[in-house]
Design brief:
This protein is mostly helical. It is built from seven helices and no strands. α2 packs antiparallel against α3. The longest helix has 25 residues, at 95-119. The two termini are 22 Å apart.
């Protein structure tokens, strides 16, 4: 995976999440566009770069938001682990795959955020979080379809040569 393409994707996803998520709100539900970037990276990249990329996106999300450091890094890493484990089982360009991965990934993210809210922070509304999960899943085929058009810029590869020293 090319680092420059990853950094541009991370910058754009986090910037649009910060800048436009409130304008895209329906009721109290906001889409999680960084989650869709996590799913895109996880479904196409090899295991180790995908998990590192998901953790990096979560760390960036933690740094620019008011959440405690590591909350989104953990949540996006869990989503990345789930999606990477389904790479060989799903058709990567199918809209139903995008919807289902967006829904399940959103549920994993919601679970981590709600458990953290119960344990430490301000109480989080489960209905608002679930609305965001549904909204993110509904946007997934459109956003991931657009990202699939730029897949060659990332130079994803399936096979790694072992380095010998």
């Amino acid at each position: 995976m090319r680092l420059s393409a990853y950094l541009i994707l991370a910058y754009v996803a986090v910037a649009v999440q910060i800048g436009a998520a409130d304008f895209m709100r329906i009721g109290h539900a906001k889409p999680d566009l960084v989650l869709l970037a996590v799913i895109f990276i996880s479904i196409h990249a090899p295991r180790e770069p995908a998990l590192l990329g998901c953790f990096g996106l979560g760390l960036i999300q933690d740094l620019v938001s008011l959440s405690p450091l590591g909350l989104y890094a953990l949540a996006y890493s869990l989503v990345g682990m789930f999606v990477v484990s389904t790479q060989e089982l799903v058709y990567k360009a199918h809209p139903l795959t995008h919807i289902s991965l967006g829904f399940v990934g959103g549920l994993l993210l919601m679970t981590v955020v709600v458990i953290h809210g119960w344990m430490r922070g301000p109480h989080v509304s489960i209905t608002d979080q679930f609305g965001g999960v549904l909204y993110t899943a509904a946007l997934a085929p459109f956003v991931l379809g657009l990202l699939n058009l730029s897949r060659k810029a990332f130079a994803f590869s399936r096979y790694h040569r072992a380095r010998t020293f």
